[in-house]
Design goal:
With 313 residues, the chain is α/β, with parallel strands linked by helices. It is built from nine helices and eight strands. It has helices at 3-23, 47-58, 70-82, 97-110, 136-154, 187-194, 201-217, 230-250, 282-294, and strands at 38-41, 62-67, 87-91, 116-119, 165-170, 259-265, 304-306, 309-311. An eight-stranded mixed β-sheet has the order 3-2-1-4-5-6-7-8, with helices on both faces. Helix 9 (282-294) links the parallel strand 6 (259-265) and strand 7. Helix 4 runs parallel beside helix 5 (136-154), helix 5 (136-154) runs parallel beside helix 8 and helix 7 runs antiparallel to helix 8. The radius of gyration is 19 Å and the shape is globular.
């Protein structure tokens, strides 16, 4: 059996283990949440986002689904409502600062707080073995800046509690600094990204701005960027690094006001974004995000996970 076959065998075995985990209900003492616990899921009108919302509803939470298209969002929420779940929808375009502001104001007026934020809204224009960067600016703006701006708007609305509020960013192992497939070749940049003590929002912003400018002038191919799904990978690298920064910032909050932030890779999921070509079901793809959001003993922060396990940046 070759390396690829062994890796596929391990993946299938892990999926079977996770399927078993999902059949084990949370005990009463583990459930820090109830029907008044509010979770926001962005980009939740379809795919992984909708499935995350559905699973959270199934655990008894109240879920706010967001969608760029109001009508599509209402339709998605109505599907969950018809199943007896507590779900509502609201318009949110993560590319539009005014839309983010209006959403935050609506949440504050109608709910006052949020316990969980899951940043799922994102785009990827590459399919199969294609590696086009013609949409790089939009990919960076949506996946990184959109996620960052939603976090900044929602942190003031995160509910103080002994259990801590939770932020989960849907990301990718393609955005790892030292990934086997997508390693950043620029050793100086890699060093700046690895050093969490000196890592800053400005460093990440500069990285993505440099990438976009190099795409525009055609020099990106020789600059040491990831070679697989390049624009998507860079956007998720930025998300992963920003997660580490925010974990450090939020860790300074006093007890009872903690916010834990992590990111996770759902895998290559069979959704519209992958052209239905993935090898992971949407239920499996959503699982780790829901698991992270509901961890009974949430002491981890600033980490990246896949298949309910921490992976290295």
């Amino acid at each position: 059996m070759g390396r690829k076959e062994r890796a596929e065998e391990r993946r299938k075995q892990r999926q079977q283990e996770i399927s078993l985990f999902r059949t084990i209900p949370y005990s009463d003492h583990q459930r820090w949440w109830n029907s008044e616990t509010i979770a926001v899921v962005t980009g939740a009108n379809r795919g992984i986002g909708f499935e995350i919302a559905r699973q959270l509803c199934g655990h008894g939470l109240t879920v706010i689904l967001t969608s760029r298209d109001s009508a599509i969002g209402r339709e998605a929420a109505s599907v969950l409502q018809e199943g007896g779940f507590n779900a509502v929808s609201h318009q949110l375009d993560v590319l539009d600062p005014s839309s983010i502001e209006q959403f935050a104001e609506w949440v504050q007026q109608n709910y006052g707080f949020v316990d969980i934020l899951i940043n799922n809204a994102g785009v990827n224009y590459n399919m199969g073995s294609e590696n086009s960067v013609e949409n790089a600016e939009n990919v960076i703006a949506t996946n990184y800046f959109g996620t960052k701006n939603v976090i900044k708007a929602m942190v003031p609305l995160m509910k103080p509690s002994a259990s801590g509020a939770r932020i989960v960013n849907v990301s990718s192992r393609l955005g790892r600094i030292n990934g086997r497939r997508n390693k950043i070749e620029d050793s100086a940049l890699r060093g700046r990204l690895e050093d969490v003590d000196s890592l800053s929002e400005e460093v990440i912003d500069q990285m993505v701005h440099t990438f976009v400018e190099q795409v525009k002038d055609g020099t990106w191919t020789s600059a040491g960027w990831p070679q697989t799904f390049t624009d998507y990978s860079v956007s998720k690298l930025a998300v992963n690094c920003y997660t580490r920064i925010m974990a450090k910032v939020l860790s300074d909050r006093p007890e009872g006001e903690k916010i834990f932030i992590n990111c996770y890779c759902p895998g290559w999921v069979k959704t519209a974004m992958t052209g239905w070509a993935g090898n992971v079901s949407v239920e499996e793809g959503a699982d780790t995000g829901v698991w992270l959001a509901l961890l009974p003993d949430q002491s981890v922060t600033g980490k990246i996970f896949a298949e309910r396990r921490e992976v290295h940046f």
